[in-house]
Design brief:
By secondary structure, this protein is an alpha+beta fold. It contains 11 helices and 13 strands.
Length: 334
């Protein structure tokens, strides 16, 4: 498979996603990338998917994962089947016991869901929140063919006020690269301690920035040289995705996160993106959940909740399925 040709199709497809890119494969250390592409009657690619392979040597098997795959019109059952037939060859190569995928299809897209189920996939639409590998619910903002003024005017009034307040108070926001990674990591550690989640390593974030060749950026806010908040944004397939964020416990009254989001949204608009993806809002529907504040903050930018179908599993080897799943969990490989 010609990776350049694969990447050209993926990044220009309306079904493309940064987690299906060859650049994402470089970020996922410890996984072996395999690329699948199928063609129409004219020899042009009309569907593809990245398959990440995690070997489990002790059991002579492997887990396959197609993150946010397949990159095609999933209503087209013929193309979906052709992609899956190629994946089965990969499964044979690695003696894989299962394939997991979480495609970017809506939870009400029953045609796409049926096309996968008809191939033998088990659909896990009942999973919620942290039970999924990738968040099932994202918050997205439509910015296609819109100006910065139009988008800003549509924010809730308090959000517009807070953005202007941050600027009046002297908060500055800029994009940067690895030069600000140390400060970003300090804030990420602080955020992890405050909110109770494990953080990725500095090496992971460095790999992320390097792999996407300038399409992944750090966004940092500062006040008088003090770093207040940070984010990692990736621009791929005309979608700008806010993947990671962090902020200081101090200086919240200066509203740095509001200005940071606006800076990233402006960049997305000026870059010609059709969507700004705030990414996950797990448990957005539960006002009592500790994560509800994430949704409350994002919804002020006046986007919409996007609920995906969720996860699909295909089992190739029933005999090792449960044992291998247990081994993966014990080693924290998923």
């Amino acid at each position: 498979m010609d990776i350049k040709e694969y990447e050209e199709f993926c990044k220009n497809s309306k079904y493309g996603n940064f987690m299906q890119s060859a650049d994402w494969a470089k970020v996922k250390k410890g996984w072996i990338p395999e690329y699948v592409a199928v063609r129409d009657e004219n020899g042009k690619i009309n569907g593809c998917t990245l398959v990440l392979v995690k070997k489990i040597p002790i059991l002579n098997t492997a887990m396959l994962y197609a993150p946010r795959g397949f990159v095609c019109d999933t209503h087209d059952s013929k193309t979906v089947r052709k992609i899956f037939e190629q994946i089965k060859l990969i499964a044979e190569k690695y003696h894989a016991y299962t394939l997991k995928t979480d495609p970017l299809i809506d939870e009400t897209d029953f045609i796409s869901i049926k096309n996968l189920v008809d191939l033998g996939f088990v659909y896990h639409g009942e999973k919620r929140g942290y039970d999924n590998t990738q968040c099932k619910e994202n918050y997205v903002l439509d910015i296609k063919d819109k100006s910065c003024d139009e988008v800003f005017a549509n924010f809730k009034s308090k959000w517009r006020y807070n953005i202007r307040l941050a600027m009046r108070k002297g908060v500055e926001c800029k994009f940067c690269g690895e030069d600000e990674l140390d400060d970003f990591m300090e804030l990420m550690k602080e955020t992890g301690r405050r909110d109770g989640f494990e953080i990725r390593s500095e090496e992971y974030f460095r790999n992320f920035l390097q792999a996407f060749h300038g399409n992944a950026k750090l966004c940092i806010t500062k006040l008088d040289g003090k770093v207040l908040s940070g984010a990692l944004l990736v621009n791929y397939a005309n979608v700008a995705s806010y993947v990671y964020g962090c902020s200081s416990n101090e200086y919240r009254k200066y509203m740095p996160n509001y200005l940071m989001q606006w800076t990233m949204i402006k960049y997305a608009i000026e870059s010609g993106c059709r969507t700004y993806d705030f990414c996950g809002i797990p448990y957005w529907y539960d006002e009592t959940h500790k994560n509800y504040g994430v949704y409350r903050f994002k919804q002020g930018f006046n986007g919409k909740v996007k609920t995906y179908a969720g996860e699909f599993d295909y089992v190739f080897r029933n005999g090792v399925n449960h044992i291998a799943d247990l081994a993966m969990k014990l080693k924290k490989l998923v």
